[in-house]
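Agenda item 2: pyridoxal-5'-phosphate complex prediction
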Amino acid sequence: MRGYLPGEQLNDPDIIKLNTNENPYPPSPRVFEAVQAALTGDRLRKYPQPMGDTFRQAASEVLGVSPDSILIGNGSDDILTILTRTFVPEGGRMAALTPSYILYQSLAEIQGASFETVPFQPDWSVPTPWPLKDTHLTFLANPNSPSGTVLRLADVRTLAGQVPGMFVLDEAYADFAEDDGLALLPELPNLIVTRTFSKFYALAGIRFGIAIAAPAIIRELAKVKDTYNCDVLSLAAATAAIQDQGYYAGLRSKILATRGRLGVALAKLGFQVTPSQTNFVWCQRADRPVQPIYEALKARKILVRYMNYAGYGDGLRITVGTPAEIESLLVAMRAVI
Ligand SMILES: *Cc1c(COP(=O)(O)O)cnc(C)c1O
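Presented output:
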């Protein structure tokens, strides 16, 4: 197998890094206090809570679900691995929409499962009726990456109702979107919602993600996960973060405002910009390939994500950085184009 190719993580401090959708702002000050506190006394010597009960209690109050509907993970990629190992037998069938998150295919290859893709329609909606039968696990990233688009809740409901086997709604970017799928959980027994703390909560370095599903599903996932898959420091950080919704609401408004300005400016430069409900924008050009633009930006120490999907053309996925970072990007773009 080829293996999943992560976005470039260059450590040069001069680089403006707009390629893997990290939050450009620091996490809540309460996160730093909580991690400091976790470094005192006995906490590192002892094992962490296996199911993260303190975190689950805090998250339950914010998300409006019961604590036993939540599974903790070492990043949401860990959660996606646990889901695959739980529900897909060797020789089983997995599926996802395309273009979307590339990791889903790698998970199928590792599991020895086949992987079917269903193309998004040109307007980024999903074909109906759903064309696949006999699948064990199907992924929908909503909002989607790289497009930044969303499938409306009514369409998610219809889709999950038609998909055979388990249905994973990967909500890595839901905190930036107008809506999310948690309300659908009681009516759809095959639905699992996943969230990451890497984007909205500005904690990509700490590795934390969750699954939210019916308690009976969470009990099965708990049998498969590593016993202590989240450490004391990540649990302390994630608990403090989710409890500081006021701080993160402030970051959300700043990022959405910058996203709006970035979209307008890119359109002025001749890009087709897909309307985004995430902390990135997907932009393409009708007049020329964009790989040379990606290369020229990189030579100017600005890193964006170049992607090329058969049938959809190539494009740039640009993370919404700080206003200063986006201004530098636009200055470079104007020079390059
Ligand atoms: C970033 C991302 C993830 C993974 O998040 P981690 O918690 O950092 O592992 C999962 N799904 C999608 C669609 C993402 O963009």
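Discussion summary: The first helix runs from residue 29 to 38.
Owner for follow-up: CH.
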